[in-house]
């Protein structure tokens, strides 16, 4: 599993929300052209509605399918597994080793990349005249923005607007239920597992930390640098004594069995066994690809975690 590292972000002269609104209201010229600035500051122009899209990261694949343009996707990574239809699409490699030749051979009219992709690959594609749009959402609002942006790029503006309305309604419904919680009523949460030798955990201003906040919790790793993940050693974990442990559930795992194994492992380890969360059996496991991809299923993660943190409110 690849965790996000330190991020250096492109900052526009206008708020992203204003740029998104302008894009959704007037997405294309009369000639069918749309021009947008991406996460690395590049101005990208797409002529017409893309018919051959290549996605260089699973979250982008999920976004394209969510807005209804999945039938135009002709190339994806080895890890693009959702929706299930994505598994049958031509593979172009993984995050660390992608084939420029395979991508070019697919004759894409739009490539959706990530800041985690190789700069050499991105700029090689640009040099060949392939439109490459780089996304890098690190907050819930940026994920919402990217739904709209991708919708505009692929000619699915109306579908994107409908999705955004639905996602915002779901967020508002959770917020209404937990809105009166005091800070002390928000349980402290640590993202990690006793099965890992090194626990990489998210700091503030990451989308995973935002999931915790939106669900009515507090991320204990608020001392890390913003928009980064870093290793929390056992001493750090014990000193924070989280009330809830949040980790991931692998595909096909039974939630109850996985939770029981998690607790048994934690109770067998020095330090872990004395944590408030372990003593009280407060472990929440969420499907890995819901929690660790900046894509629409993150809203499922928020709703699931909110219900687990505050069962009396849901």
Question: How does this structure look, described?
Answer:
By secondary structure, the chain is an alpha/beta fold. It is 38% helix and 16% strand. The chain has two domains: 16-25 and 34-169, 3-Layer(aba) Sandwich (Rossmann fold), CATH 3.40.50.1980; 181-313, Nitrogenase molybdenum iron protein domain (Rossmann fold). It has helices at residues 16-25, 58-66, 100-105, 119-127, 140-153, 157-178, 207-214, 234-240, 255-267, 276-279, 288-291, 298-309; strands at residues 33-37, 43-47, 53-55, 73-75, 110-114, 132-135, 188-191, 199-202, 218-219, 229-232, 244-249, 283-287. The strands form four sheets. The protein has a four-stranded parallel beta sheet with strand order 4-3-5-6, sandwiched between helices. The protein has a four-stranded parallel beta sheet with strand order 9-7-11-12, sandwiched between helices. A two-stranded antiparallel sheet has the order 1-2. Helix 2 links the parallel strand 3 (53-55) and strand 4. Helix 1 packs parallel to helix 5, helix 5 (140-153) runs antiparallel to helix 6 (157-178) and helix 6 (157-178) runs parallel beside helix 12 (298-309).
């Amino acid at each position: 599993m690849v965790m996000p590292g330190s991020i250096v972000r492109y900052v526009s002269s206008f708020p992203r929300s204003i740029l998104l609104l302008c894009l959704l209201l007037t997405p294309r010229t009369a000639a069918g052209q749309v021009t947008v600035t991406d996460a690395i500051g590049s101005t990208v122009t797409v002529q017409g509605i893309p018919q051959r899209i290549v996605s260089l990261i699973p979250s982008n694949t999920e976004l394209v399918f969510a807005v209804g343009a999945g039938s135009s996707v002709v190339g994806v990574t080895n890890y693009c597994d959702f929706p299930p239809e994505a598994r049958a699409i031509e593979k172009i490699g993984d995050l660390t080793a992608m084939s420029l030749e395979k991508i070019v051979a697919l004759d894409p009219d739009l490539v959706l990349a990530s800041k985690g992709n190789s700069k050499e690959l991105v700029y090689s594609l640009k040099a060949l005249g392939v439109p490459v749009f780089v996304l890098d959402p690190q907050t819930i609002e940026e994920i919402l923005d990217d739904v709209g942006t991708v919708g505009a790029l692929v000619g699915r503006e109306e579908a994107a607007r409908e999705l955004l309305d639905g996602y915002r309604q779901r967020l508002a419904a959770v917020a209404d239920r937990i809105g009166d919680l005091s800070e002390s009523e928000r349980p402290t949460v640590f993202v990690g597992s006793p099965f890992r030798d090194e626990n990489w955990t998210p700091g503030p201003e990451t989308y995973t930390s935002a999931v915790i906040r939106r669900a009515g919790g507090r991320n204990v790793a608020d001392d890390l640098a913003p928009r980064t993940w870093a290793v929390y050693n056992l001493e750090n974990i014990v000193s924070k004594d989280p009330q809830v442990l949040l980790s991931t559930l692998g595909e096909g795992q039974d939630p109850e069995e996985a939770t029981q194994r998690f607790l048994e492992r934690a109770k067998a380890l020095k330090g872990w066994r004395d944590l408030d969360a372990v003593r009280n059996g407060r472990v929440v496991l969420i499907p890995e690809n819901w929690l660790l991809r900046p894509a629409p299923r993150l809203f499922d993660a928020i709703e699931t975690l909110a219900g687990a943190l505050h069962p009396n409110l849901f």
